[in-house]
Amino acid sequence: MKKRSLPTRKKNALSSFLADLENRSDFTYLNIKKEFVVHIGYYNSVTDHEQLQSKFIPYIKHLSFRSVQELHNILPAGDIHLLHDPEKIDDLMLKGYVMIYCGESPEECLLFPLPVFKSRQISIPEVEFSVVGPKEAFVESIDTNINLVRKRIPSPQLKFKELHVGDLTQTKVCVAYIEGVTNKENVNTVVQRIGDIQIDQVIDSSYIQQIISDDKNSPFPQLLDTERPDRIAAILSEGKVAIFVDNSPHVLIGPTTLVEFFSAFEDYFLNWTIASIFRLIRLFAVFFSILSTPIYVAVLTHHYEMIPKALLGTLVSSRSQVPFPPILEAIILELTIELLREAGARLPTKVGQTIGIVGGIVIGTASVEAGLTSNVLLIFVALAALASFTTPVYKMGNTIRLIRFPFLITAHVWGLLGISISICYIMAHLLRLKSLGRPFLEPIYPFRFKDLKDAFIRLPFSMAKNRPLEVRSNKPPRLNPGEGRDNK
Q1: Among 104, 179, 246, 390, who pairs with 172 as Cys (CB 3.0-4.6 Å)?
Q2: How confident is the model over 356-375, as pLDDT tens digits?
Q3: What is the pLDDT of residue 242?
Q4: Buried b (16+ CB within 10 A) or exposed e, 415-436
């Protein structure tokens, strides 16, 4: 009795599910009359109904079969399923599968994939634009993104582990690595952390980045994100792990280090001496962006004796009409710059550029003439804002903008001692920080001399014989420096 009752419950559940589908506005039923009625159902929004109408339906009309089991053996389509579970059937149809069943009370339904692909065309990188090098950027389709990497690394060693995250969205996530090169511990760490995620929706790779980071309260991003396929191909060859997320044009990289956030991928397309100089300029710009305004506040508040006599007259005259202390003056200007930056980012491109340029000129000139700020501080704040734009990674640029304000507060309270305390606190935080369990401050701490060849400066490729020690690669050598040169 128990063996006969189980198929009856499945049949009843399936019939109720099929009847409920008729009440869904975006679901379509088609009937083909043969010796019996063949029912075809699909969701309009996710299924390629044009191809279904033009190719599959005429083909099915001419086929000779009496059940979906027979159709399963003769239908020329891959990844065909015979299912009776309503939940599994609905899940596949929401991914673009077409359902076929025969009669009014079917025991099983046949499903075959016919998804519609609508995505943005491949375009040039917008955030990581480079003058030299490839001009392709990732799009929102994960299959297209994987293809862009596959064509750069056409090797069977390139592996992808597929997972699905999000109770509602069931977002497809792929973990990419090169077998035999990437340390399996790094791969297992990423897969385990993504597999443990319990959330209802994942809309973008930023969700994954925030959830699997080692320190979720840190303002510093612990995974590098990029929109460049060439950069992903390069980091995979180094032995790192990449995380692709469907519907996201940005791919995550890990483990990563702090110095990588200030290295543009264009550095590898330029001569090593030029690339090294540009990298040092970026690092100087970061320190200038963080420290210039706090030092101004500290010196004018606590350390007048440090001001050179030649500069003292200029500072006195510029601040003679300003009614505010240096800290309030600096915060007003910094907040004004942030308001202009946010307004420019949220408005349409042409309008945003106009607001940023005109607003900055008008507000800056008016504030100085009104005696609300000094022209010397205005120059420092403008240069600091300009220096923050040299950071190649947008999320690290946001971090630099944020930590400038605690430096201002401590500079006002304790002067240069306060700035020193802030630097010590940031360094202590960075020393504790990790990326997928690896030191975030490498090669500074732990100190690794060999990894300095591609840190603050970029040495020539002939000196980069081994992969970085931070990734613990299974295959450290990657270059024979004698190859490609005339040894005569």
Answers
A1: 246
A2: 666 777 777 777 777 788 88
A3: 95
A4: bbebbeebeeebeebbeebebb
CA distances from 206 to 226, 243, 248 (A): 11, 11, 9
pLDDT(351) > 70:
no
pLDDT digits (tens, 9 = 90+) for 208-256: 999 999 998 999 999 999 999 999 999 999 889 999 999 999 999 989 9
28 contacts: CB under 8 Å, gap ≥ 6: 41, 42, 43, 44, 49
Residue with the larger pLDDT of the pair 63 and 111: 111
> What pLDDT is stored for residue 229 in this prediction?
93
How far apart are the C-alpha atoms of 312 and 323, rounded to whole Å?
18
pLDDT at 236: 92
Whether 324 contacts 377, CB under 8 Å: no
Helix (H, G, I), strand (E, B) or coil at 323: coil
* Bridge partners (DSSP) listed for residue 458: 454
Per-domain residue ranges of the chain:
2-113, 142-256, 268-439
Alpha carbons 334 and 407: distance in angstroms, whole number? 12
Contact between 214 and 434 under an 8 Å Cβ cutoff? The reply is: yes
Task: Report the amino acid identity of residue 391.
Answer: T
Helix or strand or coil: residue 273?
helix
Contact criterion met (CB below 8 Å) for 102 and 67: yes
Write down the residue that tokens 């500069």 correspond to.
Answer: 311
Say if residues 404 and 422 touch (Cβ distance below 8 Å).
Answer: no
Q: Tokens 């490729």: give the residue.
A: 461
More confident residue, 97 or 25: 97
CB 93 within 8 A of CB 41: yes
CB 235 within 8 A of CB 265: no
- Residue 341 CB coordination number (10 Å): 17
Q: Where would I find the beta strands (DSSP E) of 15-116? A: 27-33, 37-43, 81-83, 97-102, 109-113
Q: Output the CA–CA distances (angstroms, integers) from residue 363 to 98, 359, 370, in the order listed.
A: 60, 6, 10
424 vs 131: CA distance, rounded Å: 38
